[in-house]
Amino acid sequence: MKRVFCIIICLLAVAAAYGQSFLESVYLTPDRGWDGVYAKGDTIRVYADADREMPALVKVYRNGKFQGVDEVLLKAGRTEVFSGSYDEASALMVRLANPEDQKDSTTVGAIVAPEEFLPGFGEPKDFRRFWKKQLKAMRREKMNVKLTPVEVPEKDREKYVCYDLEINCLDFRPVRGYLAMPLDAGKRSLPIAIYAHSAGKMTASYTKATVKKALSLAKSGKGAIALDINAHGVLNGQDDAYYEAMEKELHGYSGRTVTDHESFYFRGMFLRMVRALDYLCSRPEWDRKRVLVTGGSQGGAQSAALAGLDPRVTTVVVDVPAMWDSGGILRGRTSGWPKPLERDGMESPAATIMPYYDACNFMRYFKGDLVVNVGLIDLTCPPASVWSVYNVCPARSKTIHPCAWKGHSGKYSVPTKEERGRIRNTMNGLLDDAIEASLK
Fold first, then answer.
1. Dihedrals φ, ψ of 185, to 5°?
2. Is the model's pTM score more than 0.90?
3. Helices (H), ranges, 147-284
4. Does the residue 14 lie in any domain?
5. Are 242 and 137 within one domain?
6. Are 356 and 350 in contact (CB under 8 A)?
7. Are 407 and 343 part of one and the same domain?
8. Are residues 107 and 175 in the same domain?
9. CA-to-CA distance for 144 and 170, rounded, in angstroms?
10. Is residue 435, in this structure, part of any structural domain at all?
């Protein structure tokens, strides 16, 4: 009976192991490790560390395009699953998939000569003139500011103040967000810090401005005038029904057909960033020196727009930024979100309108300090596109932090929750450190 019991336990253990997904069972690693960066001609090797012997498909993608597939038998332990070298700038992804269910997979990235990537779009001759016209029209409209005090947590009430902020902005929705700062701050004592939000459903918590985020930013460094700005100018602190209605109204906004320069949805979003900064810079507490803007994904697009339109911005800190090289397809690789040329076609109006809204042309004018996190397996904001904008930016100082296992929206292709947490904390910590340093 004891022997039968042991056999049953072993069989259950085997069944449990084979029930695990590839992501749970295999750790893919490039031989360069964390950053996955190679020079031209270097041999790239990718290893799979598996918890058991099993068959797998190895799929390789270069600059977003499928290159081929091989069948391998993974050993329990380490197996080399890919080896190759490239003589030109290349963004690679190596994906290991279950032959029985190819959606069951794990992926790792590498990048070759990233300093050579360039954006697909050039700068239109009237780029600066176009945006000066937009800013002039916005600033002709008298600024009406509404500040409504909001309650902060009890532990912060003696040190910080927070407001629900609203500012009119042309014919668009107004600037809306939460403004926080140290209580009783002196004149010219504080830098400005603006947090811009990523895209997503209006019902999701990460798309909404919050008192918590504004206070967190206000506490950074030695304190700041901090604004958590709502990307769409919708009301703050409303009930679920309101945001469900806004979700229906705004659904698919990033995928709407691009028809002309001045009706493009992001025009209002970008102008709200400048309108907000105009107000913040008018406050007596501003130190007249430092302005930080930060955000991820769509927040990276807003950050780039503000940095390129307003020379008062001194620091940009962004994570997997969107609209960084929306014309990547013109150079034979995947474009950055929202991929308008892939959607509307190469001959569509998007081909001539998007250069006025792409980060590559805003960031050509930013001369402050730049810090960027990039994911080498990010399909939404591909690493080659992010790097292409980074390369043309004449920043005073710039740093880019790649991660071989990082995808979009905080996703990491590693087996365990603990390892995902470790990598996520490390990558987020790089951005937090940059924010802290700029606000001290």
1. -65, 140
2. yes
3. 211-218, 240-250, 265-282
4. no
5. yes
6. no
7. yes
8. no
9. 11
10. yes
Domain of 77, in residue numbers:
21-114
Helix H or strand E encompassing 299 = helix 298-309
pLDDT in tens, the chain (440 residues): 444 334 333 333 333 344 578 778 899 999 998 899 999 999 999 999 999 999 999 999 999 999 999 999 999 999 999 999 999 999 999 999 999 999 899 999 999 999 999 999 999 999 999 999 999 999 999 999 999 999 999 999 999 999 999 999 988 899 999 999 999 999 999 999 999 999 999 999 999 999 999 999 999 999 999 999 999 999 999 999 999 999 999 999 998 888 889 889 999 999 999 999 999 999 999 999 999 999 999 999 999 999 999 999 999 999 999 999 999 999 999 999 999 999 999 999 999 999 999 999 999 999 999 999 999 999 999 999 999 999 999 999 999 999 999 999 788 999 999 999 999 999 999 999 999 999 99
Length of the chain: 440
CA 349 to the chain's CA centroid = 26
Q: Which of 65, 89, 114 is the last residue of a domain?
A: 114
Query: Does residue 83 contact residue 92 with C-beta atoms inside 8 Å?
Result: no
> Are residues 137 and 103 part of one domain?
no
Q: What SS3 class is residue 253?
A: helix
The pair phi, psi for residue 415, each rounded to 5°, is: -70, -35
Q: Same structural domain for residues 110 and 135? A: no
Please report the DSSP string for 355-383 in residue order: GGT-HHHHGGG--SEEEEEEETT-SSS-H
How many helices (H) and strands (E) the chain has is answered by 12, 17
* 144 and 73 belong to one structural domain: no
Residues 252 and 276 in one domain: yes
| Whether residues 100 and 164 fall in one domain | no
Domain annotation covers residue 212: yes
